[in-house]
Each structure stands twice: as structure tokens, then as C-alpha cells.
Amino acid sequence: MVKGLERYAEINAGNLPAKFQIAKRIPADKTDSLYDAHRDLKKEFLKCWKKVDASILEEKPADYSFLHLKVDLLNEMLKECVFCQRKCRVNRYERRGYCKTGAESYYSSEFLHFGEEPELVPSHTIFFNRCTFSCVFCQNWDIVCRDDTPVNPKELAYLIDIRRRQGSRNVNFVGGNPDQHAHTILEVLIHVNSSLPVVWNSNMYHSVELAGVIEDVIDLWLGDFKYGNDDCAAKYSNAGNYFETVTGNFLRAKKHGELLIRHLVMPGHVECCTERIVKWVSKNLGRDTRFNLMFQYWPAYRANEFPEISRRLNRGEIKQAIKVTSVHLDNLV
Ligand code: SF4
């Protein structure tokens, strides 16, 4: 069992329920006071979820549950969207914000992915369109720039159950990025029958407001930690106040679930990004944080407009990244 991912493993083994299955069994009242009702039920949920065992799965889900309430709340929040730290405050029923996502969600593909971290594969990966970042080196730009298949929540839930029977160890919501589709994803989960770990594979740039709603259904935060400072984040992803936002989200995620951090080493950014990130993670999340140091950077999309990142890593940078990471972290993928 991988250190730090013990609960994830127990859910997979059927010994513990996935959090969204607990949320589905907490009855809620339909109300216009969605924020108040959510706050009250959340207190109840936080007191009990760690003590709940798999026998809860034998109980019938509530007709209207804590999870339904979350979906209604997220749909309400769409009227003035603050799902991510950009906080566009647009009404997504009428127009699109920075992420170019309206109220409807689209995805590009779903399949059993065998290229993720060993403890995740096979991972049922669902690639949603659009993103809250605009990384100039985006390696998935083709799915970020367009809308492919509209999500039908019942149909996608059915596929998640089928993939589970085919051997998936989790459902992995990614993109693009999942945050701007949180309302749709939680609605999908209402219809999922299997109890399998929910993996939120994101840039960790979500807002505190969104975290308060989605953290009760996420078992594993698979978070990208891209930059060690705000200047690099602003330059390459047009993301303001990056470091404070992302570090705040990692700290909060650790309190509410389990963590696996990914860091893609970028050419010329070992000192300003890789080194600062691993030091922060070691000091604030622990030396034993599960950490995937990745070297597959290649200059995709518009990277050729930035000569300093318009190349692959050289051997010296790879060695330096491994060295600094090994000094500070013990639980490397
Ligand atoms: S998800 Fe973020 S970028 Fe998209 S509309 Fe909402 S606040 Fe704006």
C-alpha cells in the first residue's frame, strides 16, 4: 500500500465507501436557502465521514441527498461564477467566462488509461474540454480549445460503472481541467452505482468557494504544482496570485482527502520552480507526500514563442531536479 494513499486503497478494496456514496446517503431537504442548508449538512458530514464503513453501501441512497444539494448549489453558483480563482462572476447560463465554458459541459474522450502513476492504473480517465489556465506550452491544447461531446450525466455515469466492471481503480476527472465542470461532474456522481475512488486531476487553481463544495466527494487530489513563484505562473499560464492560491488549496486538500502531487520540470525552471516547490511541499505537507517528478516536457502549442522554454530538458537539468527532490522528499513515484 502506498504511503499517504491508504484510504484510496481501502475504497478500492471495498473496505471503505467512496465519499460521494456517503454524501448520497445523507438526506437533505429541498430548500431555497441552499448555502445555509449546505453549511449545516457539511458540519454533519465532516463529523462522521471518516468513521463510516462500507456497510453504508447496503443502505438505499436518499431521494434527495447532500450530493443533490451540492449540485443545486453549484448550479446556483453558475449565475455568478467563482469556481476558480479568476472569479469572472459571469452568469454562465448567458455567457462564458475566461475558461470559455458555459453551463453545459463537454468532454473529449474517456478510456482506461494505463499511463498514470502505478497506484492509479488502470484509471478511468475522462478528459473534459476547456481549462481555467492558458498555458503557452499546453500539451492538451487540442481538447482545451474546443467543445466535443456534450455530457449526458446518466450516460457518463453508466460508462463509469461499466469501466469499473472492466477493472478501473478509480474515476479520474481531468481535461483541460475539471473545476469549471464541477456542477456536471457531481451530477454524474449522483447516478454512479459503484463505490470507487474519485480522483480530481486539476491545476489546483480552484477557489475557496468551490473547494467548500467539492472536497466532500473527492477521495484523491491529483494536483499539478507547476510553478514555484507568481512571475512564472503569470508569464506562462496567465494565472495571477498563483502560489498563494495553489498552496492554500494543497493544504486544504490534505485536510479533506489524500494527495498525489505532480510536477512537470520545465527547461530553465529548476531553481525558480522545481526547487521552491519541493521545499514548500516538504516543509508544509511532509517529506512523505506522494510526489511525481515528471520529465516529459516538450515545447507544445505556443512554446516556440518563448525561446527559453522552446526545447526539451537537458541531462543536467534532469539530474539537478532529481537531486534537489531527493534531498527534500521521500515518497517519489
Ligand atoms: S470557472 Fe473560472 S474562468 Fe471559468 S467562468 Fe468560472 S471563474 Fe471564470
From TrEMBL:
Domain Radical SAM core as annotated: residue spans: 126-281
Keyword list, A-Z: Iron, Iron-sulfur, Metal-binding, S-adenosyl-L-methionine
InterPro entries, alphabetized: Aldolase_TIM, MJ0674-like, rSAM, rSAM_sf
SUPFAM superfamilies named among the record's database cross-references: Radical SAM enzymes
Gene3D superfamilies linked to this entry: Aldolase class I
Membrane-spanning parts: none
A Pfam family annotated for this UniProt entry: Radical_SAM
Keyword Iron-sulfur: yes
Protein name: Radical SAM protein
Organism in which the protein naturally occurs: Geoglobus acetivorans
